[in-house]
Design a protein that fits this description.
The longest helix has 19 residues, at 314-332. It is elongated and about 95 Å long. By secondary structure, it is α/β, with parallel strands linked by helices. A hairpin with a 2-residue loop joins β9 (116-119) and β10 (122-125). The protein is built from 7 helices and 29 strands. The structure holds adenosine monophosphate and magnesium ion. Magnesium ion (MG) is lined by residues 184-185, 227, 249-250, 256, 312.
């Protein structure tokens, strides 16, 4: 761990964190529960898509070579979407057909119903017809054995219909962590309580709970602790039963910053304290380990609770959550990619960082332009509320207006 005056780099911190945490055991869940979970194995197509040659239109299945403009074809039957009626089309014939219906044998094209005139049991075709038209061929979208979802990939809304098309009802995904949040500070009051001079409402409880929900953490216990050792120890003991414990505030160097000492006293291994990042320097990371047994007193195991101490200023808590806690949670859930989405954009104004740490500037990315929002100080909530992304400006760097930068997007 860095000495009180030292800081480790963000990259080092992230690497240590991601290496320390373990992917939780996988579980089998239904597709309807799987949105935003991460696949715990590779999935391959077991059915081609489409599964059989079928019509892309409502119309008539025909033999292309027997269609003459304004020539007549006899309609010999109809084939709706559903069971294959095993109809056979020959030259001079047509089968009335509907979107998704299996292609009758002998047919090699579909004529749209808009291009046909019906005369009782006959039709005349008003266009030229080419073989293959409006037919969806078996396997043209997906072939059997093709990779459809890789281990560690996020299951998105658009992944689910593909899995469903394979007849899958369940999917194996990475485990889902539980978390506890302790918001520390004698100055903090809950909404509904009357503020006395010097007091403020607690912003971080709701912030961290929301960010955890975004990561799809299954349950979060949120509590407040005043800045006294006993209350803090008790709250930490409750919180350490989870996979993740986030303590907000009290990780800096003041006499009322008790978190590090409490964690130590309770047996935590503290691996990181102070990271070169602005805002968020006093960030802390460590873990508790305890041996476990099952309900019959057997099956010895190890419970690990990873602890993140985030600075109390809400913007610092926000930045350090996204830069360090989120990657850890994603790894626990089995994700391979732990990065925020990045978009290239032009700066609307110049940005300078004359501090000794990379500065995460909050701002709004809109139509390819990034504009900082509000005050860039760690307590400044309004600017954060207007922002949707960060630009990371390294120490000593000056970026000019119109310069191209990477914006990390969180929405
Ligand atoms: P600390 O990290 O405990 O030294 O707190 C740094 C600053 O963040 C102080 O101005 C605190 O009042 C403020 N702060 C701490 N926790 C919260 C919170 N939960 N909501 C809003 N502000 C907070
Ligand atoms: Mg405090």
């Amino acid at each position: 761990m860095a000495s009180p005056t030292e800081m480790i780099s963000e990259d080092e911190a992230r690497t240590q964190i991601v290496h320390a945490v373990r992917t939780l055991p996988s579980r089998r869940i239904t597709l309807s529960q799987a949105l935003d979970c991460f696949a715990a194995q590779d999935y391959f197509a077991r059915l081609p898509l489409p599964g059989f040659n079928n019509s892309a239109m409502d119309g008539y299945a025909v033999v292309a070579s027997s269609c003459k403009r304004d020539g007549r074809l006899r309609v010999i039957g109809d084939q709706p979407a559903g069971p294959d009626r095993k109809l056979r089309v020959s030259g001079g014939e047509a089968v009335r057909i509907f979107t998704g219906a299996p292609l009758p044998e002998g047919a090699d094209a579909i004529v749209m119903q808009e291009d046909v005139t019906r005369h009782g049991t006959d039709i005349s075709v008003n266009v030229d017809v080419e073989a293959g038209e409006f037919i969806r061929r078996r396997g043209c979208d997906l072939t059997e054995g093709q990779l459809i979802l890789a281990r560690g990939e996020r299951i998105r809304a658009a992944t689910l219909p593909l899995l469903a098309s394979q007849g899958l009802a369940n999917v194996n995904v990475g485990g889902q962590p539980t978390a506890a949040v302790i918001s520390t500070g004698d100055e903090l009051m809950k909404s509904g309580e009357k503020l006395q001079p010097g007091q403020i409402y607690d912003s971080n409880s709701v912030l961290l709970n929301a960010l955890l929900q975004r990561c799809r953490v299954s349950e979060t216990a949120v509590e407040h602790s005043p800045d006294d050792r006993q209350s803090l120890n008790d709250a930490i003991k409750r919180g350490m039963k989870n996979h993740v414990l986030i303590v907000s505030g009290g990780v800096s160097v003041g006499e009322h910053d008790l978190v590090k000492e409490s964690l130590r006293e309770l047996g935590a291994k503290i691996e990181i304290w102070r990271v070169a990042v602005k805002p968020g320097k006093p960030f802390l990371f460590g873990w508790f380990e305890s041996e476990t047994v099952d309900s019959k007193g057997q099956m010895p195991g190890l419970h690990q609770c990873f602890v993140f101490g985030l600075p109390g200023n809400p913007v610092s808590a926000f930045v350090t959550f996204l830069q360090f806690v989120r990657p850890a949670i994603l790894r626990m859930m089995g994700a391979t990619n732990h990065d925020l989405r990045q978009v290239r954009a032009k700066l609307a104004v110049g940005l300078t960082n004359d501090s000794d740490r990379p500065h995460y500037i909050r701002g709004r990315l809109e139509r390819g332009k990034f504009m900082p929002t509000g005050r860039q100080e760690s307590h400044a909530l309004f600017g954060l509320s207007q922002a949707n992304g960060f630009v990371r400006v390294v120490a000593g760097q000056s970026l000019k207006a119109e310069e191209l930068v990477d914006v990390q997007i969180w929405e």
